[in-house]
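Students often ask why inverse folding is considered easier than folding. One informal answer: many sequences map to the same fold, so there is more than one right answer. In these notes we will look at a single instance of the problem. The structure comes first.
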């Protein structure tokens, strides 16, 4: 009774005797005779002990259930830890497998690239007709490479031949360069675009002449057939030869610019572009495209030469050759020619005579009638006076031998 809680003790004391007997009878370990003879205090002690026993049993059950639950939680935590370890192991295995597959794929790709390059190389050799020699060279290289590998040395690199270089650069140029046009006026533009592509693709100088040949027109190919093998090695020489054969000289550029007119099948924009190209080609051929002083001198020199008579002009042009003289030099040569040929020119004009043709058209120098006699009233120049014209058949003046009256008689 004393071990029971205070509230339970008070509750049992307030319970009547009959209620206590019923509660004691429910315990089940007391006879009815003994139950009837027990007093109130004994009944209270019996019920209190029963309740205390029951409470202790319940607490023990709860403790056991808590222990079982704790063990179950620990087991679940261990299982989760094992699951985590298993998942981590699988992840590592998957990553390892992926790495292995990537390495195998990269190795396979390299093998395929090597095989493709090898096939392309063999095709190039077959196209150039050098398969036999290349096979021997490859065999020697392979043997040397195997020996070097056995010795632990790196394989020596393959030497690129001239045909390989021409093939490689030629394939690139075919994608961006058009063939030479048949129109002569467009040939300089063709060479300009070709040289621009040479600079873009960094074509070596020793390959430019060889790479030019496939793009030439039929007429240009027939022209360069006159060149020897040494001359065909020089790109600038071949270019200048073709320009000269097509008469694309500085004087021709100047003539094309001066006498250019708009064509019926072109717009004014295209005509302006053609004029610009002709002037640019002319200035570039005179090497004064970027030099204002030389351009200034060239303009004066060209204007001065346009004012010269035919004899002095031909004399200056014969001395110029492929170059050009400045205005001072042109003026000096023109004065020299005039001082040495002026009297001869005057004498030639005095003694020259042009006869009339059968249709009766008069000569621009001397006014003659249709019968061969001169019209003295229309002649004002004393040097061209008809009295100074003498017939060598009859020795008379006023007519020439072709219209001599003695010949017709």
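Output (designed amino acids):
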């Amino acid at each position: 009774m004393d071990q029971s809680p205070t509230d339970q003790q008070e509750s049992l004391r307030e319970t009547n005797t009959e209620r206590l007997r019923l509660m004691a009878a429910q315990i089940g370990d007391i006879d009815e005779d003994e139950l009837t003879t027990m007093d109130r205090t004994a009944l209270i002690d019996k019920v209190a002990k029963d309740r205390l026993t029951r409470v202790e049993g319940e607490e023990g059950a709860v403790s056991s259930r808590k222990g079982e639950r704790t063990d179950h939680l620990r087991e679940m935590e261990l299982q989760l830890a094992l699951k985590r370890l298993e998942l981590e192991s699988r992840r590592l295995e998957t990553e390892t497998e992926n790495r292995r597959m990537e390495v195998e794929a990269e190795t396979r790709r390299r093998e395929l690239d090597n095989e493709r390059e090898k096939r392309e190389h063999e095709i190039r050799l077959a196209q150039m007709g050098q398969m036999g020699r290349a096979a021997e060279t490859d065999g020697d290289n392979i043997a040397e490479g195997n020996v070097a590998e056995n010795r632990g040395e790196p394989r020596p690199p393959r030497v690129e031949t001239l045909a390989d270089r021409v093939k490689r650069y030629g394939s690139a140029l075919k994608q961006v360069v058009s063939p030479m046009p048949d129109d002569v006026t467009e040939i300089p533009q063709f060479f300009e675009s070709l040289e621009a592509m040479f600079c873009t693709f960094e074509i070596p100088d020793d390959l430019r002449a060889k790479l030019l040949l496939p793009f030439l027109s039929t007429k240009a190919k027939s022209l360069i057939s006159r060149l020897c093998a040494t001359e065909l090695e020089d790109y600038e020489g071949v270019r200048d030869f073709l320009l000269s054969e097509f008469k694309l000289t500085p004087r021709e550029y100047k003539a094309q610019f001066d006498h250019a007119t708009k064509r019926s099948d072109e717009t004014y924009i295209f005509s302006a572009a053609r004029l610009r190209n002709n002037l640019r080609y002319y200035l570039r051929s005179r090497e004064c495209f970027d030099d204002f002083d030389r351009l200034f001198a060239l303009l004066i020199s060209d204007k001065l030469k346009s004012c010269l008579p035919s004899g002095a002009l031909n004399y200056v042009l014969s001395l110029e050759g492929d170059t050009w003289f400045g205005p001072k030099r042109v003026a000096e040569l023109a004065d020299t020619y005039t001082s040495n040929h002026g009297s001869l020119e005057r004498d030639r004009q005095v003694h020259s005579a042009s006869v009339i043709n059968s249709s009766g058209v008069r000569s621009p120098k001397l006014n003659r009638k249709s019968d061969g006699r001169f019209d003295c009233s229309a002649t004002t120049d004393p040097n061209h006076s008809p009295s100074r014209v003498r017939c060598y058949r009859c020795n008379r003046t006023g007519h020439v031998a072709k219209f001599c009256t003695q010949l017709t008689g």
